[in-house]
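Recall the central idea of this unit: under ordinary conditions, the amino acid sequence of a chain determines the structure it adopts. In this exercise we apply that idea directly, starting from the sequence alone.
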Amino acid sequence: MNIPAAGKKRLVIVGATGMVGGYALRYALDNPGVGHVTAIGRRKLSLSHMKLAQVLHPDFADCSALAETLSGQDAAIFCLGTYKGRYRMRNSARPL
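Accordingly, the structure predicted from this sequence is:
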């Protein structure tokens, strides 16, 4: 596990493979005040970074397995969604 230097924040980002989550991830990795970023998502990220740890979690209906991962974080950014470029009204929602 990557331990951040004193005074640096530990951040978790859920949904970092999406558009909004990707921007949040890149911003966090470039921010000198952030010492460690844990990205939780359904798919593996296509980038690696010395401040980044990835956790794959396929079923967000049950997050009990994430308790240890979420413990000790200073902040969380939740960007999980299903946006595909347009909005459909018909009962098209799927479980996250």
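The radius of gyration is 14 Å.
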